[in-house]
Amino acid sequence: MSFTKLSIVATGLSLYLTSVVRAQGPGFVPLVNKRFNYTNLPYKVDTDVGLVRGDQLGYNICNSTTEGAASLCQTLIINSLDDFCLWAPSVPGKTVGEIEGEMIAWCSQPGHGTRIFPPGTITGVQLTKTPDYVQVVGFMDQTKVNMVKGDAGGEMDPHGADLRGNPMGGVVFSTAWGGNYKQVIEWHNFNGGDAFCLKACDPSGPRQAAMCQHIYDTQGCGFNAPSNARNGVFESCAGDSQDPPGTGPGTVPASSLCSTFASSDIFEGTVVVPLPGATGAPTTRSAKTTATPTPTTSSGGSSTSKTASGGAPTQSSGAGRVIIQGAGAFGSAFALMLML
Ligand SMILES: *[C@@H]1O[C@H](CO)[C@@H](O)[C@H](O)[C@H]1NC(C)=O
Ligand SMILES: *[C@@H]1O[C@H](CO)[C@@H](O)[C@H](O)[C@H]1NC(C)=O
């Protein structure tokens, strides 16, 4: 794209976003600008009665009374290999593209007031903690979390056409950066094609917006969150940061210090997996005991290990490829700008 065309598009985008904010009324605050503490979340983060998209489906105060099969919790947690959530539909029958604004949190552990993954949902996952982010990338039986069989999926992020987020009012918290829960400001989650990737960028990191870029919503996990994830393997690793999506050669970054586990131990059993390089006490979930990591070198890919990832979600695996149908106003507006 020429520089002139680029600046026309950029101007168009900023005019469009300005008009979105105006259309939401003078008090409107984009989701990505809202700040919360985990312990004093409002019942609903999204206070905007949407002219176009309606109200926030669920709620953000999630506890033992909301937990289980009827939960509509929209507060998502990503802590460790054994303790993370994904955004998925509350009801079956609709594709990610159709229902991205109403996704709810499904989690690997009880304790977050959410729905819980049925056993066998996650069939392989690699957690990677890098200087810029923590991510889980892997494979799943997506029908177990109300996704349509064969749906190539789409992207969730805290932006969206009307800046209310997808899901609207969805917020993300993590203990990955020490101490209590911290709100994750920039994140993206691609689910589809029986694969997933969820990246939470360090909320005090200088590259969080670039690393958790939200504009490549049709490109999937291989492009947005390259990893060494393999189906059938459950491992927790440290790693280098990828090139920000859309920049650099996009090779799979090296992962290291990997520890592998049995899914039955970490998801149904008692094993708590500390983050790679974590010091001090592990999590205090009472029913669980601390894991003795089994060091492996199996996925210690180098920066040239792109083809060694053996089935890591790639563009062709589909996660996040078919967002256009559900992108609504943003898709149309963006297409319009490209035609300028
Ligand atoms: C979160 O809690 C801290 C300490 O109580 C406080 O200083 C901060 O303002 C709170 N932030 C928000 C967004 O409520
Ligand atoms: C539990 O969550 C529900 C739904 O958000 C909320 O209405 C209720 O007040 C919460 N209970 C406590 C004790 O916080």
Strand content: 15-25%
Q: Roughly how many Å is the radius of gyration?
A: 19 Å
User: In which order are the strands of the major sheet placed?
Assistant: 7-10-11-6-5-12-13-16
What is the number of helical segments per DSSP (H or I, 4+ residues)? 6
What is the overall pLDDT average?
82
Number of separate domains: 1
What is the CA–CA distance across the termini?
Answer: 12 Å
Structural class label: alpha+beta
**Total number of strands:** 16
**Sequence of secondary-structure elements:** HEEHEEEEEEEEEHHEEHEEEH
Keywords: Signal
Region (Disordered): 277-318
Signal peptide: 1-23
Biased composition (Low complexity): 282-314
Structure characterization notes:
Residues 282-314 have a biased composition (Low complexity). Residues 277-318 are annotated as: Disordered. Keywords: Signal. Residues 1-23 form the signal peptide. This protein is an alpha+beta fold and 340 residues long. The protein has one domain. Helices cover 16% and strands 23% of the residues. It has 6 helices and 16 strands. It has helices at 3-23, 96-99, 208-211, 220-224, 263-268, 324-339, and strands at residues 75-80, 83-88, 104-107, 115-116, 122-129, 133-140, 154-156, 171-174, 182-184, 187-192, 195-201, 234-239, 255-261, 271-272, 289-290, 294-296. The chain has an 8-stranded mixed beta sheet. A 6-stranded mixed beta sheet has the order 4-3-2-1-8-9, with no helix packed on it. A two-stranded parallel sheet has the order 14-15. Helix 1 packs across helix 6. The chain is globular and about 50 Å long. It starts with a helix and ends with a helix.
